[in-house]
Amino acid sequence: MLAPEVETRPWAEQVALDDASYRRQVEYLFARSAFYCAKLGAAGFGNARQVGGLADIHKLPFTEKAEIRASCTPDNPIGSHLCVERADIVRIYSTSGTTGTPSYIPLTAQDLDNWVTGSARSYAASGLKAGQRLVSTYNAGPFVAGAALASMDRIGLCHIPVGTGNTERLIKAIQLLEPEAAVLTPSYAAHLVEWAAERGVDLAGSSVERVLVAGEPGGGEPAFRARLEKGWGARVTEAMGIGDIGISLWGECEHQAGMHLG
Questions:
Q1: pLDDT class for 141, splitting at 50, 70, 90?
Q2: Partner residues linked to 262 by β-bridges
Q3: Are 216 and 189 in contact (CB under 8 A)?
Q4: Counting CB atoms within 10 angstroms of each CB, which of 18, 146, 150, 233 has the fewest?
Q5: Above 90 in pLDDT, residue 149?
Q6: Contact at 8 Å (CB) between 119 and 111?
Q7: Sheet arrangement for strand 133-136
Q8: Residues facing 242 on adjacent strands
Q9: Looking at residue 98, what is its pLDDT?
Q10: Weakest mean pLDDT among 19-23, 115-119, 154-158
């Protein structure tokens, strides 16, 4: 655990804190977000008091990505859910845009810190500890996964960023720098098992003790996980996030019995 005082907080105490935070957030949305004012108003909620607390969250309408995309205009390409001044935005990530114009995800400094904090907790759940070496294959380009790289610093790891597209460089870094952990997508982890076998590289005998997979589904599927663990000679744990909410919201601990909310 990265922050035991937070991650082991009694449930009743945590619920009370979450309820207070939720109420403040709803008040903020009514004050600052044209999108949610209209959406909540159409659902019969005229103010934050009528929305209530977490116990009543099931009464709220779902928000779908198409709704946010429909609210984007040339003058406001982010969408009408934006509820801060543009000067308060410190980073804007984007989706691939394979179905049209990319969706833009703006973050304030506090948003970014929240993302990094949650991500650091989710990765620390796997057993990573300060002082260990970790090699990563994520790029810090337009996609939100780039923000996960800062979580390595938050944990106190020796971070060895390699990025994508150069398997030889990655294997050489593992052989020479001897990292205890590697973070990559499940499909790339599987590709490396095949790549190493074809070239006589003893991947299972490397220094890597933990393989952290994220970015796409499949890492927790039992048969696929077993294949990765055999090929890497390492324990495989999974993390998962949602681009519009947080990069790594959940992380799997060494028990490999489901994810913990970071």
A1: low
A2: none
A3: no
A4: 18
A5: no
A6: no
A7: 158-161, 133-136, 181-184, 210-213, 235-242, 246-252, 259-261
A8: 246
A9: 59
A10: 115-119
Contacts 24+ apart (CB under 8 A), 1-5: 1/121, 1/124, 1/125, 2/120, 2/121, 2/124, 2/154, 2/155, 3/121
Name the least confident of 10-24, 102-116, 136-150, 221-235: 136-150
Q: What is the signed CA dihedral for 98, 150, 231, 237, rounded to 10 degrees?
A: -90
Q: First and final CA of the chain: distance in angstroms?
A: 10
Q: Enter the tokens of residue 87.
A: 């000067």
Residue 117 has pLDDT above 70, yes or no: yes
Cβ atoms of residues 151 and 182 within 8 Å: no
Alpha helices in the chain (DSSP H): 4-7, 11-32, 34-42, 48-51, 65-70, 109-124, 149-155, 167-177, 186-199, 222-232
Q: How far apart are CA 84 and CA 152, in angstroms?
A: 28
**CA 162, CA 234: separation in Å to the nearest integer?**
20
Model confidence, pTM: 0.83
Q: How far apart are CA 152 and CA 129, in angstroms?
A: 10
60 sits in the region (left: phi over 0; alpha: psi -120 to 50; else beta) called: beta
